[in-house]
Design a protein that fits this description.
The protein is an alpha/beta fold. The protein contains six helices and seven strands.
Length: 225
C-alpha cells in the first residue's frame, strides 16, 4: 500500500484551521496526512483575570480534542507569543525546516491582507518560507523542496472573490463539533458558532451547496509550465 501524501497547514491560533478549513480537512483525512502547525501559544485569549497564565495549556488541550475530530495526523506548536507573531528569522527558518522535512504536496495558510497581525505575519512568513525552502541554501535544514502549491483560507477577514469553494455539506456538523472543542473562546468571540455557520452558508451558496469553505490559490511562487 502506498503511503499517504502530506499536506501542511500553518495557522496563527489554535482554532483558525477549524474555522477556515475544518470541513476540508475532515473530508480529505483518509487520503492525506494533515500536519497542523500552530504559530502562537494563545496566551492572551482570556476574559477572566484568574485565567491569565493558564490559556496556553487550556488551548493546547482544546486543540488536541479538535484534532481527534478533524483527523489531524500530527500537530506542531511553535509557541510564539500571541499578538506578537513575527515574520522574523526564527519563524522563517522554522517554516523552511518543516517544509523540507514533511515535503507536502500542498500548503494552506491565512490569507493576506488580514486585520490580525498574527494572521498577516503568519501568511507572510509562510509564503516566504515556501520560496526559501526551494532555494539551494541552508543545507543543514534538509534537502531543498519546492512545494507545488499554496492555498489561503479565510477566518474573520473575507475574500472578495474566492477562487475555489469546497462542498463541506456532508461534514458540516462534524466541523461544528470540532469548533465546540474550543470552549475557552466562547466568551472571547461571542456568536462565533453563528458566524461560522453563516459563512459556510454564504460560501455554500456561491458553490451551489448547502455549506462550503472558500480558498484562493497563491501566485507568490510562479508555477513552471
Ligand atoms: Zn486567529
Amino acid at each position: 500500500m502506498s503511503e499517504k501524501q502530506t499536506i501542511v497547514i500553518f495557522e496563527a491560533h489554535s482554532d483558525d484551521c477549524v474555522i477556515g478549513m475544518g470541513g476540508t480537512v475532515i473530508q480529505n483525512n483518509n487520503e492525506y496526512n494533515f500536519i497542523l502547525v500552530t504559530m502562537t501559544k494563545g496566551e492572551t485569549a482570556y476574559t477572566k483575570v484568574e485565567d491569565k497564565g493558564k490559556m496556553t495549556e487550556i488551548r493546547k488541550n482544546e486543540s488536541m480534542a479538535a484534532d481527534e475530530i478533524l483527523g489531524i495526523h500530527e500537530h506542531i506548536f511553535l509557541d510564539n507569543p500571541c499578538q506578537d507573531m513575527q515574520n522574523n528569522l526564527k519563524n522563517y527558518h522554522e517554516v523552511v525546516k518543516i517544509l523540507r522535512k514533511y515535503r507536502p504536496i500542498r500548503i494552506y495558510t491565512h490569507k493576506s491582507p488580514s486585520k490580525h497581525r498574527d494572521h498577516r505575519n503568519t501568511h507572510d512568513v509562510v509564503v516566504e518560507g515556501w520560496w526559501k525552502a526551494s532555494e539551494n541554501v541552508l543545507a543543514d535544514y534538509g534537502k531543498t523542496y519546492r512545494c507545488p502549491e499554496l492555498f489561503c483560507f479565510e477566518v474573520t477577514d473575507l475574500f472578495e472573490f474566492p477562487g475555489y469553494i469546497v462542498d463541506i455539506s456532508n461534514v458540516f456538523e462534524k466541523k461544528m463539533s470540532a469548533l465546540d472543542a474550543f470552549s475557552s473562546q466562547f466568551d472571547v468571540l461571542p456568536g462565533l458558532n453563528k458566524y461560522v455557520e453563516g459563512l459556510a452558508m454564504v460560501r455554500g451558496y456561491m458553490g451551489g451547496f448547502n455549506y462550503g469553505e472558500a480558498f484562493i490559490k497563491s501566485n507568490f511562487m510562479a508555477k513552471p509550465c
